[in-house]
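Re: weekly structure request thread

Next one in the queue (265 aa):
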Amino acid sequence: AAMFWLIRMPYLLVVGLLPSLTSVSAHEDRRPVVRLVKGSREAQVRSLTVRRPLRRVRKEEPAALAGEHGATSDSARRPMMDTTTFVHPSAVVEDGVRLGVGVTVWHRSHLRTGADIGDHTRIGEGVHVGAGVTIGANCKIQNGALLYEGCRLEDGVFIGPGVIVTNDRHPRAVNPDGSLKTADDWILEEVVVETGASIGAGALILAGVRVGHWAVVGAGSVVTEDVTPHSLVLGIPARPVGTVCFCGRRCTECETCGWSEGVSP
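Done, posted below.
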């Protein structure tokens, strides 16, 4: 009788532990494993947890964004696009946008209806280009820039990361009577950045401002009034602190590009 129970003990141990081993989470699989120890008549029972990796579902971001913003097909989201132009699949290009030759539009950027992008311009990640915004040829728009309606960039303009170009000097969400403002209840003021000008990272350009050609706005500056050509402005509010040449260097005369203050335009 003793020998019978000694032989049956491993089987009883396994059967007795099975109910407790089956209570596991949705992403775990506990399996009883019986291992015989050399030199022993008893079996050791242990629980081996096998974790199955979660299945990752790829989000159809371009399709979702297209539906949200009214584009109904891939052709509607990328109209008037030259074959040399590259648009990342996650970018949203609404109907009526014109993209010039060799334009590049990177991840999660949004180009609204009526925007006009000049040849060979590069638009970085997460850029917002408002409805009707005009961007000239050979411009560089860095990641996270926000160019709202009324913005006009001439050729060769550099817009640094996180730059914001606004269009309303007196912003309100509601009218005096508490009703929600519509497009007819506020005045859109244009911002113009002339040829070759550079706007440094994180700068804020207020509505109605004109930045002259080849001027430089320093990083983090808040521009509240017009900037003259070839000027370097810094601070909050931005104030002129010097002049810059075509190369972008602070100087009054440059041997590299031939610019000199008061002589070259």
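The mean pLDDT is 80. The helical segments are 2-21, 61-68, 74-77.
Next request, please.
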